[in-house]
Amino acid sequence: MNRLDYCQALEEILRHNVVWIEAQSCSGESVMVMKSGCKGMEDLFFHSSPVKFLSLLSSERSGYELIREVLSLNDYVLVVEGALPRDQELCKVKDMTCQDLVVRLAQRARAVVAVGSCAVNGGILRESGANSVGVKDVLGKKVYEVLGCPASDKMIVAALYYALSGGPDA
Ligand code: SF4
Prior knowledge:
The chain has one domain (3-164): Rossmann fold (3-Layer(aba) Sandwich).
């Protein structure tokens, strides 16, 4: 995929509902996509409907109201960046844990994509005190996985494009 194809694919992806959840993450994958250099990326990623970017740790667009809004969506691809701690108290938004949120969103998602090794298998946090796990460890449905620390932005875009355009459903 050359630069032009990459940006076109990314724009095409962002025309769909994409719910991007940042759990226990250093934002490496978000940064990789943001620094793609594609025109209008920041607006598309952070400010445009229907794209919903949720950081469970810190973000301009975060918080319970946004989560409630996202939980009412019906047709979206769920992207998870970052690990899920076994100790639920380590990743919560008000009364909802990261794991609860991912499980609930995954139930209605047309596809689930785990980006980065933390989201795939817990990554560097798996061996830490947090003893974190990946998305597939808590879901009973297919998860498209993009390994890497950080995962390649090109591979993330390719996985999302594939998930949106005909990859086998869960
Ligand atoms: S996989 Fe690496 S870059 Fe991605 S959230 Fe984990 S530590 Fe950060």
